[in-house]
Give the backbone structure.
Amino acid sequence: MIESPRESLYRVRWTLLALGAGVLPHVRHLPVWVSAAVAVTGLWRLVIAHRQSPLPGRVLRLLGATVALVAVLATYRTVNGIEAGSALLALMAALKLLETRVLRDYVLLVLIGCFLLLAAILRDQSLVLLPYYALATWLAVAALAAVTRTSEAMPWRRAVALSGRMLLYAAPLAALLFLLFPRVPGPFWALPSSPRATSGLGDEMTPGDISDLTLSDEPAFRVRFHGSVPAPLERYWRGPVMHDFDGYTWRRSRGAFLPGQAPQYSGPRYEYRLMLEPNNRTWLFALDQPVAWRGDEAVFQSFDYQLNVARPVTQPLSYELASYTRHTSGGQLPLSVRHRDTQLPPGRNPRTLAFAAELRARNAGDAAYVRAVLDVFAREGFTYTLTPPRLDFDSVDDFLFHTRRGFCGHYASAFTMMMRAAGIPARVVTGYQGGVFNRVGGYWYISQANAHAWSEVWLEGNGWQRVDPTAVVAPGELEGAMDSTLAEGAAGSDRWLGIAEWVRNVQFAWDAANTWWRDRILEFDRLKQQALLESLGIPDPDWGKLGLLLAGGFAAFLVWITFALRRELRPRARDPLLAVYDRFCRAAARRGIERRPDEGPLDFAARLKRALPDAAQPIDTFIDGFVRARYLATDEPVDLKALARLARAFRRGRGRVSA
Amino acid sequence: MQSLRQRLRESFNRRMRRWSIKRHGEDRLPLTLHRRRVYILPTGFGVLYGFILFGMLLAGLNYDNNLALALAFTLAALGVVAMHFCHRNLAGLELKAIEAEPLFAGETGALRVELLNSSRLERLDIELRAGDGAAVVVSIPAGERVSCRVPVEAKRRGRNHVARLAFETRFPLRLFRAWAWAYDCAEFIAYPKPLGNAPPPLIEPAQSGRHDTPSAGDEDFAGLREYRRGDSPRSVSWKAYARTAQLLSKEYSGAARRWLFLDLASAPGVDVEARLSQMTRWVVDAERAADAYALALPGVRVDLGLGAAHRSRCLLALALHGEPTTEAAPP
């Protein structure tokens, strides 16, 4: 069945809309040539439909498909994965547009549009895009409704209204499925690894390389405390720990399985939920020091109290944590750890080594030595800045004796090296410090601007203790970036100042909405599903119970929609008087006499009386009452109930009725 | 093999018919397509849609992406909703009347099927099909009655029985196909196919001036007579009806060129059907040539006459020759 030109134009328009809605969110990821090729092909198809010119021949289409495949392969080196896959799908859909002849082709293209939408969602499921996704889905359904019409074209308003109504009816079942469908943990097939941008802290630290630390307000994670909140100066969020120093760069110890020590904790226990943004790294953050954790992913702690996961965090990840901020460790540091954390590269930073030896000679006790080094930072004219000069090959020498300008990384690096030079085990800990409280959402917002580095030293009898040399240089920097004006050129830290209160509230509200979206919707997982069911009074929900609930809910939905739709099938509400008359006519039909469509009440009554002479009187009474009420211009009120009674009596009566 | 398939199909149809009658009773007009007799199954596209949704579900679970799952679930729920929309698009439709226009055997004509949609919803894209004929698509606005022409093919002369009238819809989204069957509620009459080229027998020149001139043409008004079924509404004297409440038809006397006396016995050949076809050819030709003609079949005589009503009377007699005559001839 070849379609008519008008049909074709109509279908092409709707299909292009649905397909376009699927391709659009990919445009910012796709190479320009793909987007351009898709757009040009779509326009071409539209022109063909307008002019009713013939579609391009098979040779041209095959050529196009080959070129597209080769070009995608050349660009991505694969056709696998979301990026290459969606590029190829978009191109092939555009080519398919050039051979649409029958209904099936259009329908297929609309489905491809849906699939492209899915690919876009897999790539980005942020709240900003939610309205777009919702509208695009609606549009796709409207397009499906429109292109599948056969008798005549459907006005676009009707298509949009119909699909909207259908989606509204579908919403309860979709919500039910979303809440109750069993969540299967883990991937079934290996996710195609794509080079994703990492963000946040890295696994090495090279202060000397950085001449301009731009602080971004991007979120690192958010924290909701369940009880008490630690003091600002205790809000150190522990991240990757650096052990290996080559004189210029600090690095994590890869593959180091060293013995750890369990310290004694004191002070309040802080319980909180940490909602981590995807950063494509394998480590998590926690308030220093975490003692308990629970999450969907398997979390393990390394010997240096750092929390790790097996695969990179590419989706938002939340976990429950408990931490103590105070701890001591009375035992001995295992030799392997002591050895690693006192290592220094031979022959590097000689002036620092000499200076440390000199200082150490004057301060015998470890604690005294620590204080002496901090004193140096406090007194010798060190400045905190986000735009430090670059450092020489022997970076610590250059920093301590020459530039004396730097940010947390410089101080942590120099301080840790000074400790190791004196034989005190020390390491650099990176992470975040501080955070902004979001009044609207009731959680702490820790952004990349809160990134920090500090030092950890082993003091006999106390165990690992945190020492933050930056705090000595720029104490204000740590008491919440909000109030800090100390750092010169700290463009990032005073971004909260000078902003009107309401703007800040809007920002808070938007971030709170995002957090809610992420926490409740995107991260609705097995645990939350269980918690939800338990809160509904279903203890210990397993797959069997889920299945039963799902089946029960589905049955309830079917009953509901059946009756809801059947209600719409009923005839338009009629004049109550006519309804009574209808009832009378139905009763007559049941007794074998059906009113002909062209028969008036008097004629009908006459015929009825001839057929049912026994019931002549009730028939007359009813028809007389009906005709009076309907046709006589009187002011007397219509006694509907009496008429209805008569009709009922006639139905039951079989002639034995007395009106 | 073709015949085996056909036989299986026919046997299936017979069984379906028997089952339908057992379940819903004999179908009598007017007939409401009650929801319990509307059946529904996914279309091929519906199955494809299901597979694609399954793919979406797997992708959502694999990438641990709740929004993708939400999309898959929404589309799945939409499928269920579409099923209900499709079913109710047909359920409750009323089949009010079926009228057949006579046609010649071997021709394709149409049944005029009158449908009533008494609901508040517009019913869209409903396909009607008589037997294995071609389909016609109609949409019926809310509360309206529409009449549509469903193509039928006259396979044989005489009464043609439409074994099954199929109603089908794939609206909306084409994911599902809902259908209902009405059995044995339509038939139509096919005149014999006009064939043969034998000269008509017994021709007399028209005799004018006789009192009982039996010729009846369309030329001059001759008087009124009682309405007979089959008379054209145009020939009804509506003025007289308004006066007397009696249906009267106007009669015209015309000048026929010749008189033809057509008798089955005079048609050449052995085969009855061939002879009936020849008679039909004569009737059609005589009418076209404005010759008055009379018809004689075993048991049936039609007096000399001319005009559309006369022609249909004769053709009907030819069509029903040899058929059981227990039923009244349809209008």
Chain A touches chain B through 58 residues (CB under 8 Å). Residues 479-495, 655-659 of chain A have pLDDT under 50 and may be disordered.
